[in-house]
Design a protein that fits this description.
Length: 266
């Protein structure tokens, strides 16, 4: 059977991508209003140390970066925490979830950091249905114009010299940067499956701890503001360095893969 152009999961219908009212790695940026990004998850080591982020995109499914769950081919045992705001404070809202199965993209290359995308299937997702919301995925034909204002969200370090991540979830606004500008800033190839975002003067960028989290942008759909995860935070050079940008895996390129993994494993 021919695959539908926009499978159900991808569409912005239903309730995905709606932030609670008043919800108006981050170098620069500001602390987020608690629970104003209700699809944001923290990815923790088995010792409960946060080191990556992720995005809930469907009941029981988290989108993140492949490098967060694979280390030189070795599988990492991870915990997914939902409902988190202050990472070292137990506020009774957060729930730690076990991962039933992980799905890094089969063509993920650790050396070139290409196809840096993964899905996590959570065990017992019904435990969290009242706490969370799901971000929308883009439509296959969605294009992000250069200069579009998007957000990065995470518990990352605020300066390169900070050893630990931020206590509280932070957000920063970053514009989409053209491939041409981006390629000038890096010594290696930035491909069509990647998105570049950030400020040339530096200062606002994703840092360690935000890997795997979303590059998320608002879009008005039928009169409602929806938040769509266009990118997965992959890497950057340094931390908010001048003339360098953050690189994000382009989610719209992987929609068929995302739908196939979820459909075949639900």
């Amino acid at each position: 059977a021919r695959e539908q152009k926009a499978p159900l999961l991808v569409s912005t219908q239903g309730q995905c991508g709606v932030r609670p009212r008043g919800g108006y790695r981050i170098v620069g940026g500001k602390e987020s209003i608690p629970h104003s990004w209700p699809w944001q998850v923290a990815i923790l080591t088995k010792w409960k140390e946060q080191y990556c982020g992720g995005t809930l995109i469907a009941p029981g499914w988290v989108l993140t970066a492949a490098h967060c769950i694979r280390r030189k081919g070795h599988k990492r045992k991870v915990i997914v925490r939902v409902g988190e705001h202050e990472i070292h404070v137990d506020n009774k809202n957060e729930v730690d979830m076990k991962v039933e199965q992980d799905f890094p993209h089969k063509s993920f290359d650790y050396e070139t950091i290409t196809n840096d995308i993964a899905l996590l299937k959570l065990r017992k997702p019904e435990k969290i249905k009242d706490l969370v919301q799901y971000a929308c995925l883009p439509e296959p034909e969605d294009k992000l114009a250069d200069g579009t204002r998007c957000y990065i969200v995470g518990w990352g370090k605020q300066k390169n010299t900070h050893l630990l991540g931020s206590e509280s979830l932070r957000e920063a606004e970053v514009p989409i940067v053209s491939k041409k500008k981006c390629r000038k800033a890096f010594d290696y190839r930035i491909g069509e499956k990647q998105i570049c975002a950030g400020l040339k003067k530096g200062g606002v960028d994703s840092c360690a701890g935000d890997s795997g989290g979303p590059l998320i942008c608002p879009k008005i759909v039928n009169g409602t503001e929806r938040w769509i995860v266009y990118g997965v935070t992959s890497y950057g050079e340094g931390c908010g360095q001048k003339g360098k940008y953050g690189i994000y895996t382009k989610v719209s390129h992987y929609l068929k893969w995302i739908n196939r993994v979820i459909r075949n494993n639900s």
